[in-house]
Amino acid sequence: MLPALVGFAFLLFPLVAMLWRAPWHDLFHLLAQSSALTALRLSLECATAAMLASIVLGVPLAWVLARMSFPGLRLLRALVTLPLVLPPVVGGVALLLALGRNGLLGRLLDQWFGITLPFTTQGVIVAETFVAMPFLIVAVEGALRSADAGLEEAAATLGASRLRTFTRVTLPLIGPSLAAGSVLAWARALGEFGATITFAGNFPGTTQTMPLLVYQTLETDPDQAVALSLVLLAVAIIVLAGLRDNWLHPGRNR
Amino acid sequence: MNRMKSSLTTAVSAATALALIAGCSSSKSSDAGGSTSASASTASATTSASTAAISGTIVVLAASSLTESFTTLAKSFEAAHPGTTVKLSFAASSALATQITSGAPADVFASASTKNMTQVTSAGDASNPTNFASNTMEIAVPPSNPAKVTGLADLAKSSVKVALCQTQVPCGATAATVFKNANLTVKPVTLEPDVKSTLTKVELKEVDAGVVYVSDVKAAGSKVTGILIPADVNATTEYPIAALTKAPNPAGAAAFVALVLSAEGTAALAGDGFAKP
Lengths: 254, 277
Prior knowledge:
The complex is a heterodimer. Chain A has 13 helices and no strands. By secondary structure, chain A is an all-alpha fold. Chain A has a single domain (46-248), classed as MetI-like (MetI-like fold), CATH 1.10.3720.10. The longest helix of chain A has 34 residues, at 34-67. Chain A is globular, with a radius of gyration of 21 Å. The mean pLDDT of chain A is 89. Chain B is elongated. Chain B is an alpha/beta fold. Residues 1-51 of chain B have low confidence and may be disordered. In chain B, strands 1, 2, 3, 4, 5, 6, 7, 8 and 9 form a nine-stranded mixed sheet that branches. In chain B, helix 4 runs parallel beside helix 5 (114-122). The interface between A and B is large, with 39 and 36 residues.
């Protein structure tokens, strides 16, 4: 019992401490500063874009992982989820070496199209997608595996096209998990720090998201850092509350 | 089905926890002194004379720009005092000052600006700092110089991608003074958390130019090319050092500060491109 209590206190106490020390009296003033609003808007935009990119690329990938069978599939699945366990800053270094101005592919992007990703808002979205997409893939792949493939086959037998089968049969089957995975990916993107500061840099308005601003203001204005942290904490609590059926108690609502 | 889903959830939560652990351990400073400090105390017990013996581990928090010089000095300190271990942690002076005033256990603080040292002394965490070096700014460009930067004025061009340090970090504050002196408005593409990150962005050729210390350009060797900033607009930052009030190892702290201020320390710093205080 005691270790459990200690474990509980260990997880919760830091957050309580933050609430305790929070500058409640001028919270509004601290959050209404233009630097905070700019970072908040940028964070919301980038996290949403990263979530959409994760859906567009992640759902087909999850479908391949769940439905197809070919040699190397297990390895592919392991590689796809690698960013889950990879320290984000390492992801940032890898992205820099791949898509940086002097990176393997980034060099060609720069030469052929004049596109450079580092230090741009698009770079932030790329970094966030890299880190967040595996969360969505894992959720959707799990749902696809537990969904009845027979229903898809029946639809196909009855003459439905692949696309029609997917939109009318598969999507409704995996809907709740897709929603949960999307929100989880969004939340992960919103909190992304290491890959972002390494790959996309840090500049207010273009690449400085909330976590980067928290890190910077902790040195200059700790009160503002706590105020910004509270916003991210509130978002996290809302996400958890929204996901409690789909993620914390998987299967209960099926 | 449910079992599969829940085992999946377990796997994901385990993976998330792993990621958290990985993140934590990688953020800690390098730590190799655990076993050596134990042998150090026994060694010092036999060699200790009448005065306070220097033994154990000395934790030194130093500005990023001191990376090369202090690594050298730490090695020579360990050689001069067998059994001691100098643990170095390099970061932006502003970040280190915040760590110290938040109670980080350390013995010595070497800052790249008077401002961050004052932050520590006024919190009562150190007293009587001594300036041991100074540094001026220089433009660092990739050896190929893709944007053909020839001087400060080029950095104000919108076509030139410039990396600077955040303004609360000494290298950022000093660079801001340089631009003010030169009456230039420079809009960087990124504000990096410390001078070595700024230098790295130049080394990786991700930016066309960065404003770093003269000593950093020297430390980078052939990986970057330096472009001098005229003396009439250049700015200087002073490097103060102090033993911390709550140093767990006061004798070691005093000895390390003494080494930095000694002729040997001054020579090492001068060799790395630092100016005299």
